[in-house]
Amino acid sequence: xxxxxxxxxxxxxxxxxxxxxxxxxxxxxxxxxxxxxxxxxxxxxxxxxxxxxxxxxxxxxxxxxxxxxxxxxxxxxxxxxxxxxxxxxxxxxxxxxxxxxxxxxxxxxxxxxxxxxxxxxxxxxxxxxxxxxxxxxxxxxxxxxxxxxxxxxxxxxxxxxxxxxxxxxxxxxxxxxxxxxxxxxxxxxxxxxxxxxxxxxxxxxxxxxxxxxxxxxxxxxxxxxxxxxxxxxxxxxxxxxxxxxxxxxxxxxxxxxxxxxxx
Length: 263
Prior knowledge:
Blueprint: H1 2-11, H2 14-28, H3 34-53, H4 56-65, E1 80-84, H5 90-96, H6 106-117, E2 122-126, H7 139-149, E3 157-160, H8 166-177, E4 185-190, H9 194-203, E5 209-213, H10 229-251
Parallel strand pairs: 1-2, 1-4, 2-3, 4-5
Helix pairs in contact: 2-3, 3-10, 4-10, 8-9
């Protein structure tokens, strides 16, 4: 199932789909199916143009990010704080010996900030490795280095290093921490990812307080015209991956709703 999810993510990635349309279209021009080749080439080129010019990714990410409200003040007492992995780059960290983060770094920085504000809280980082070829490169290794470099007492943090996806984050962390009814546990992840993450935690019977971070939009619809193909493909890729993930997780029974919402 893990390998299948990676294959689905690959074949639904917009950069892969559009590039294949262009390449296959060009190849068909050298055969007897030139009309089909011209059509594919036109579709691929037009798709890249639209992605470069219009904020398609932002439009699709907006409802994901707006699903859960931004939290500006936590309860006075917090029993625990859980941050999901996905913000580190294991390969670059191993190559250079320095903790390397990706575009979702706010997950980690906000976790450190909240940990300092709530010394009474238990702390958990959950994230093993989503790498197919190097599963031994754990996210927890990078997280431990990063937290220590920021002056954090890493002995306070429980590191869950077996999970490979969001559902396993919820399941393995629940089994590890055994939260009690009535406790206040805060869940930190990117705003666009919060619906799926919250749905997974709810499905395993763990009611958490969602704390979305790492916003990619301004929170409202904007019509802008630009020409940024790489950025457009990245944004659209994030959005499609998350919407496909929501549908797949609901079909597999890993979330409690198709589009999970706040309690």
